[in-house]
Design goal:
2 domains; six-stranded mixed β-sheet; binds adenosine-5'-diphosphate; Rossmann fold; alpha/beta; globular; four-stranded antiparallel β-sheet; nucleotide-binding; binds magnesium ion
């Protein structure tokens, strides 16, 4: 579904991503692990159009998508989740979901879209969809709370929920489990698994928690120093000498 060829992203002389190549199979939940500073987030940002690459190519379903801006990738069904921005903290959780189809796709679309449809109908449909998403994620009870006031874990579920407001094909999740308690971590894992199975989403998930990875991810890719070190099942990765040296052993 996604092929990354010899991708580089340098910052000055520093090679954050240093010739990474990998393939993401359609329908998979691929785990991306590696030590801090390995270049995982930078790789995500380049794939998702947030940062231009220094060199290399990204191909999605046979089409070269290298350097396309996030809103164009969004229309192709490629999403990278972001933390709920500070300025949206005063909006309710439901409102945060309702603004996704507009917010991530750009103001222009928002305007033309509302220009040709009846606002009230659209709002009702969006609201119903948002409520469906909240229910799926078992957080209906926070619908009317301000997004800035819910727990860290609930925010993470909300971030995942944002991907469900549109027809995503592939979703990149960067440490969705960070700072989340174990119960909520597994709720998030199960929601990802269910979205994968029922809606056919492909996921690429950066995560440090090996139980989380083991629960849902196959295959697992390990990066270090901007390069792909190894790929395989979690057991294979855990047994890989280079991975142990670069990451698991430390
Ligand atoms: P990871 O997500 O694997 O922890 P990152 O992709 O965030 O790693 O970072 C990889 C390296 O690139 C780090 O050493 C980081 O300091 C550096 N880096 C990331 N973004 C920038 C930037 N905008 N400018 C300069 N250096 C950066
Ligand atoms: Mg990171």
């Amino acid at each position: 579904m996604i092929e990354v060829h010899e991708l580089h992203r340098h910052f000055g002389g520093f090679r954050a991503v240093d010739g990474a190549s990998l393939k993401i199979a359609p329908g998979s939940i691929t785990g991306l692990i590696g030590p801090n500073g390995a270049g995982k987030s930078t790789l995500f940002n380049v794939i998702a159009g947030v940062l231009p690459p220094t060199s290399g190519r990204v191909v999605m379903d046979g089409e070269d998508i290298t350097g396309l801006p996030p809103h164009e990738l969004f229309h192709k069904g490629l999403l990278r989740t972001f933390q709920i921005a500070h300025e949206f903290g005063s909006m309710t959780c439901r409102e945060n979901l309702m603004m996704v189809p507009a917010g991530q796709s750009g103001e222009q679309l928002w305007n033309t879209w509302f220009g040709r449809k009846r606002i009230a109908d659209e709002e009702r449909a969006l609201r119903a969809k948002a409520d469906e998403v909240l229910e799926f994620l078992t957080i209906s009870h926070i619908a009317d709370l301000r997004a800035g006031e819910v727990s860290g874990g609930q925010k993470k579920l909300l971030e995942l929920g944002r991907t469900m407001m549109v027809d995503a094909k592939i979703v990149f999740l960067d440490e969705v489990g960070a700072g989340v308690n174990r119960t909520l971590l597994y709720t998030i894992a199960d929601a990802i698994k269910q979205l994968n199975e029922e809606r056919g989403y492909t996921f690429v998930v950066i995560e440090h928690d090996m139980e989380f990875i083991g629960r849902i991810c196959d295959p697992v890719i390990c990066m270090a120093e901007g390069k792909v070190l190894a790929e395989g099942t979690l057991d294979e990765i855990k047994a890989n000498e280079q991975v142990i040296e670069a990451y698991l052993g430390t």
